[in-house]
Amino acid sequence: MDEALRERVPFGANGPIGVLVDPRTWRALPYLMVSVAFGLAWSLLVVFGGTISLVMMAVWVGFPLALAIMVAWRGAAMLERRMVRLAFGVKIADPYQRRPERGVFNHLRWLLKDPATWRDLGYLALIAPVSLLEFVVVWVLGAVALRLITASFTAEFRFGTEMAAHTLPVRMLAMLAGLAMVVLLAYAVRGLSLLHGTLAAALLGGGEEERLRASRARGIDAAEAERRRIERDLHDGAQLLLLSVAMDLGRARTKLDDDPEQVRELLEQAHTGTRAAIAELRDLARGIHPAILTDRGLDAALSALAARAPIGVDTVVELGDRPPAAVESIAYYIVAESLANMAKHAVATEASVRVARQGQQVVVEVWDNGIGGASLQQGGGLTGLADRAATIDGVLVVSSPVGGPTLVRAELPCAW
């Protein structure tokens, strides 16, 4: 298990006291108790649903049923990733290949050829016995600990079937044994969390090579989209302005001897068009990489963005040393796009931007109290930001229920 995963599974505290007071230990306990129900449900889906669909392949009904079961188990795997994150803190991004834009057969090929589909199946097939083991261990240890602790307060309790204990030393001994079982339960929860988190990361997260390949593909797509945007902005903006300037100068040259007054007007138009083209190019250059970000860093660049927002934006940057240039650039564009979306769609009255260092990551959070409803849609601006973050193995998550508020959070790995 790699160090990043080890840090996210509740193994940070040392010693019995540290284990007992660590909230991550007890946060995992409810999931370990109820995961057996999910495990059995997923087994029924995979085993019985798969068997029924195979039997019915003799008639045409079996094929759509098998496809529906396949989609269902991918949905179950997505749910498991989110529950594992809530229970253990293990962050597993959906490792699926990019969905084709159109075509039923293209979607079917995409579903069948994606290795993540079949790793999901492997996880769902294994989770039933694993979750049953977790439930039995936690239930037995918890029941014994609870029996010993509660029995020490009762008027009478029995060890085995014969010896009744009334004396204070025996009660104290029972209490100490119960507390020892609680500590043992806490260590068992930690061990089971490590087991489950490792299994989930291995099967639900995809291999390292595939993850890097997907990240590179998304990076290429993001760079291509950025290139097209620059070409479009040049064609529709600066190029037209410069063409107009060239035409004005050409007309002025033909009338230089005949109509000096019109020449003066044409030169004025050319001058105005030149200034507009320069402004357009300056804005375009700022969109590629703002000079203030290079010269003064992320704090100054984000403050400038906040100053241009239509509402007040509280900006907090807690980084200390400057992160790598690529991380700075991606963080800047995440904030810029998020604030632009807020101004266009959110109808917000308050917003905040927070950028902070957490371990070997830069965490970017953009919040507003608008109407919500933002999502990562194919071809959308937020999806483009997620693609930018993926080029450095970063993750972008959007939480925006209808009615608000909206939180865009990005975790960008880097090293100082």
From TrEMBL:
Residues 226-291 form the Signal transduction histidine kinase subgroup 3 dimerisation and phosphoacceptor domain. Residues 31-204 form the Putative sensor domain. Its EC number is 2.7.13.3. It is an enzyme of class 2 (transferase). GO terms for molecular function: kinase activity. It catalyses: ATP + protein L-histidine = ADP + protein N-phospho-L-histidine. InterPro entries: HATPase_C_sf, Put_sensor_dom, Sensor_HK_TwoCompSys, Sig_transdc_His_kin_sub3_dim/P. The keyword Transmembrane applies. CDD domains: HATPase_UhpB-NarQ-NarX-like (cd16917). Keywords: ATP-binding, Kinase, Membrane, Nucleotide-binding, Phosphoprotein, Transferase, Transmembrane, Transmembrane helix, Two-component regulatory system. It comes from the Bacteria. Gene3D superfamilies: 1.20.5.1930, Histidine kinase-like ATPase, C-terminal domain. The chain crosses the membrane at residues 28-48, 54-73, 121-149, 169-189. SUPFAM superfamilies: ATPase domain of HSP90 chaperone/DNA topoisomerase II/histidine kinase. It holds the Pfam family Sensor. This is histidine kinase. It comes from Nonomuraea typhae.
